[in-house]
Amino acid sequence: MTEKITKSLYMLIKNAKDRLLELKYSDDTVRKFNNVWDKFLEYAESKQIDEFSVELSETFLKETYDINIGVKLKRKNYVKARAMQILINYHLHKAINLRRKQKEYIYPDSFKSEVIAYLNYKYQNHVSISHLNSISYALKKFVSFLSQSGINNFSELDNEKIDAFIRTLADYAKATIRNILQTIRNFFSFLYQNKYLDHNFSFLIPHIKYSKNSSIPSVYSQEQIIRLLKSVDRKNPIGKRDHAILLMAAKLGLRTSEVKDLQLKNLNWETGQIKIFQAKTGQMQNVPILEDVGFAIIDYLKNGRPNVKNDNLFLKHVPPYDSLSKVGIYDIVQKYFQRANIKIPKGKKHGLHSLRHSLASQLLENNTPVPIISEVLGHLNSNTTGVYLKVDINKLRTCSLEVPDGIN
Questions:
Q1: Any domain includes 408
Q2: How high is the pLDDT of residue 282?
Q3: Is 353 a catalytic residue?
């Protein structure tokens, strides 16, 4: 193994392992994780890769254990996926989320008074024991994260650190994410109302809408999106059209209906903006014409679009040159997924909307604040964007275990 790999990947694993032992994980549990990490080091060496990345984790799981992203995880693979999630969270945040039932957790003295005051407040309001346990579980996770991140008391909190904590929850089951965030939101309101904090941070915590039938957004890696775009033959008129359509979803996050209904008059070249009517929200939104998107549209208008009277930007290329349908746009996307030889696991969606989801995932991975992602995606508020926490910045969103509400 090269010296560079030893210093980079090996030290990441060593530091994560030391943190697990500090958090009183059992030797047996750490040993199971270490078996996976040893294979990961061998894999990285075989690929001559010396830098840790999310995509490296994803390909390692796929090629070594046949763990497909977007497919329900088999129980035998839980430890393997969890081991890689630990590395990713430590790499990004220098913190590890507690994932197992703890026999004992002692709150640091600097946090204890506020936590006890809140738990007493909830107890006096006659909440059930199981609800108290759920609250305690969420607060333990939050305080543990803050302690590992160098925060010594709640007065040192800031938007960035809260946002980082939220990101560490991305690999949890959606019901668990919802319950934890609800607890932290209510806790912040309590701290503010009782003068423990000067700022009410509760407004930074997104509301997660959850139903057991809700689906997990399907996303593709940045490398896969690049392959998809490169698979388009832009030398012919249809390719010019298709390339512009794919770019608008991948770079601007446009929905299928927004692409289908986009009209020539919506392009404002003087301001460099596109006016989009969002049928889902009923709102008008101006989105910037990014340079590559603008060149693709111009190329299509000058050298690809049929010379017919039709207000819509994108048209069919066979008489009578009508505007595209939603099904037609879906078929376009499928064609290029096949040309790019992108393998799609069973059950994973692969329409135009998956490119929008992939953009959201990429923004999350780049530590873009949730309110800015909301603005890019055209959501009315940040709460709607909370669904993308299910995507997981590390693309391991399906490798999660539900944590019961009553766990300590």
A1: no
A2: 61
A3: yes
Give the lowest-confidence range in 19-23, 102-106, 263-267, 341-345. 102-106
**Of 379, 390, 395, 397, which one is the catalytic site residue?**
379
Instruction: Give pTM, 2 decimals.
Output: 0.44
pLDDT in tens, 27-43: 888 899 999 999 999 99
Identify whether the C-beta of residue 289 lies closer than 8 Å to the C-beta of residue 273: yes
Contacts of 208 (CB under 8 A, 6+ apart): 174, 177, 178, 181, 182, 386, 387, 389
Please say if the pLDDT value at position 354 is more than 80. Answer: no
The catalytically annotated residue of 82, 255, 305, 350 is: 255
* Claim to verify: residue 383 and residue 236 sit in the same structural domain: yes
Domain range holding 372? 222-390
pLDDT tens digits for range 286-343: 888 888 889 999 999 999 999 999 999 999 998 889 999 888 898 898 899 899 998 8
The CATH number of the domain holding residue 264 is 1.10.443.10
Residues 331, 295 share a domain: yes
Inter-residue contact 4 to 50 (CB < 8 Å)? yes
376 and 228 in one domain?
A: yes
Contact at 8 Å (CB) between 137 and 147? no
CA distances from 290 to 90, 169, 247, 293 (A): 34, 32, 10, 5
Per the omega criterion (within 30 degrees of 0), is the bond before 319 cis? Answer: no
- Has 126 been annotated as catalytic? no
Residue % of the chain over a pLDDT of 70: 76
Residues 10 and 37 in one domain: yes
Assess whether 19 carries a catalytic annotation: no
Tokens found for residue 306 = 């049929």
Q: Is residue 194 part of a domain?
A: yes
Exposed/middle/buried for residue 364 (C-beta within 10 Å: 0-12, 13-18, 19+):
buried
pLDDT at 256: 86
Whether 255 is a known active-site residue: answer yes
Residue 388: active-site member: yes
Does the annotation mark 350 as catalytic?
Answer: no
